[in-house]
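A favour, since you know our structure tokens better than I do. What I am after is a single protein written out in full by you. Could you add the entry underneath, on a fresh line?


***
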Amino acid sequence: MRRDRVFRTVSTIVLSLALTSAGVPASAQSGKPMTAAEANAQSAAEAAARQAALQPPPPAPAVVEETPSARKARLKAEKEAAKAADKARRDAERAARPKSDTSNKVAACLGGAAVGAVAGWLLGRGSTGAILGGAAAGCVTGWALGAALKGQDSKKLTSYVASDYAERDDLATDSWTAPESGQPIMLKTLDTSYKPIDHQVGVAGGVAFDPANIRVAIVKMRVTAPVSLRSSPSLTDGDNVIGDFATNEIVRAYGTTNDGEWTYLSEPQADASDLVIGYVRTAQLSPQLNLPRAAPVQIAKAKPKAKVAPRVGTRGNGGRTKPAPVPLQVATAPSAPIRQVAFAAPTRCKNIQATALGKSDHQSACSGAKNVA
């Protein structure tokens, strides 16, 4: 009997909990009539349930197929937006950095080049060589060495580095005295590299020139053995010899062929441009000039190749011949006009450091570019 009472009690509690969770009011669970509040709540709940059941399900999102043109436009817009954001970021970073001396030097260089180009146009009456020469001469960036340089010292140091020190490979270090301040400036080559640079060069008449077969590197070289100047980089063409150089003469190399077998020789012109005059074998040149540092470097000119007049035979001389009874004349071919060639080529650049009074500055001197920047 006691077990039955416990079972009925537990069953009643479980049933009550189930009905409560189902939303059945307690009065209905006990069999008692519902109060008005309970009846109203139950009616409202039933009405809400019926209303929810009558509502249609939310429509699925429409899928619009992207056309190729729309996709192309979207990708272009995204790319432009990303590019604009990247530019804005870089501009903000650049504006946050303090303006360096290098920026000032580049601005001064561009201004000087413009002035030099105008002066070259006026002096050369619009000739390409004069304009380029004037621009090169006007592009002077200066050196940040403080009190060690006064007046025109910075410009003169730039000229010395570009036309002398940078063109010698036998001087790892050098000393130059500033004319106005009297201070010694120590120069040192930190490293050398090749960069693609645009050039315009004059080429002597009759001399072959292949813009795709040159590495520009202007260096003063010493002739180690008698060598022939040729109009083309070939040993098999007997008619291409146009001059000769003697041992220990100093020549000015403009660059080499891509394989390094041949060296272009050049002569500097009055307008600061270069004139390629021919080729010599690289193996017969050395960068060691064997000259005292203070001695000026004199660039030798090629001796024209003499064409010997034919010898004429005479009778009654045992078949031997003797020179014609007229003075020998050096035969020269009619000179062809100099042509200007514009090209881009790997170009040697030296990173040069100048030091004075505890301050140091370094700039890059590139062959064929008269400025140091």
